[in-house]
Records
---
Amino acid sequence: VQLQASGGGLVQAGGSLGLSCTASGLTFRSYHMAWFRQAPGQERELVAASRRSGGEPYYTDSVKGRFTVSRDNAKNTMYLQMSGLKFEDTAVYYCANSQNVQWRVAEWYNIWGQGTQVTVSS
């Protein structure tokens, strides 16, 4: 299994950035997919999750209204569109997958790859 996150970069506060997560070696549509992030000195946190069956995504409170997660099962790709970026959004962003019914629970996700760095300048 490979999940490759890309699209990170440096952006000014208030700006926008889009991330992509491309999957291989798995049946993408069979998995819940999620974005995690980890800032320096902080624990890794679940940012957003997309249920395999569709429906309303999950967002952590700090990104609600600013981030949008989506997926294209035909392309084996998940996206995270981020707007209104804040300094505190600075982190390495990782993509992850899960088949557990508790799709909003971070512990049930497997995180893959090196992630992509998002840096927001204040």
---
Amino acid sequence: QVQLEESGGGLVQAEGSLRLSCADSGRTFSTFSVYAMGWFRRPPGKERELVATISPSGLTTYYADSVKGRFTISRDNAKKTAYLEMNSLKPEDTAVYYCAAKALSAQVWNYWGQGTQVTVSS
């Protein structure tokens, strides 16, 4: 069972940086390493959108065009933690950020964190 908890959100000025963490507090050590991890966000008044994903091994990543070149997704399977490094933040990056985990065979993201607020001031 994967239990995800995000941290690292906050208030930052435009062009600033934040690093989000997503820790798996589940009891099974090996589970986290077999899941793909993703970061999503829900801007105020808008639908949830995919930000970035990373494969179980960490070798394959995907980024939405809106964050490409500014955000970096990574993971440390030994620490059961995924990260989202966000640089050159813009006011339009303001959102609640969620991490999620998905078995590779699954069609949907199986597990979700509770979300962390990121606010970028201009």
---
Amino acid sequence: QVLLVESGGGLVQAGGSLRVSCTASPRTFSAMGWFRQAPGKEREFVASSNWSGGSTLFADSAKGRFTISRDNYNGMMFLQMNSLKPEDTAVYYCAAAKTAEITGVVSNYFYWGQGTQVTVSS
């Protein structure tokens, strides 16, 4: 059992930056990722990383604007979001897989956090 807790969401103006964090307990060395869900929409993939951060995967919407990183010593994962747009508004979820494979498929992730709200105003 891995408990995931997100933090760092909030309200930001378009063009601004925000960093959301995820703390895993116990720490995990499997693949981890970020997903988001806007009202009335399905949960969608944002970014994922292997345990070292040496392999990452991004959704097209996140490429060039978002960065994913991990601090395995402290069991943490981060999503740095720059050049935010109103369409980035969603609840952001941290997820951990049971394997090392990084994917954007929701069903590949077994553990989920409760989510943190990110709101980007225009």
---
Amino acid sequence: VQLQASGGGLVQTGGSLRLSCAASGRTDSRYTVAWLRQAPGKEREFVAGISWGGGVIVYADSVKGRFTISRANAKNTVYLQMNSLSPEDTAVYYCAAESKVLPSRSTYDYVYWGQGTLITVSS
């Protein structure tokens, strides 16, 4: 499966953005999808994950209550709505997928990766 992330950009503190992750290729399989991010000089970290049917959703503590992950399987697309953004959210955001039932918080569990989209939050 191929993943294409989009929707990044520059936003002011307190603003909102919505990222999209479009899947192509072997979309007949059931994939758990996650958003992960990597800030300058830091390791890549888990942000949010959603099971294939959408029934299981997990968030990193740092984004809980501000970010919402969702998916539209008919469109082969997963979204990340980000509200109340702060400079600490500045990073390259990646969507990734794995053929497991439940979303993993470990970045090493994801097999398929999109190219990343940059979000810069100005203070």
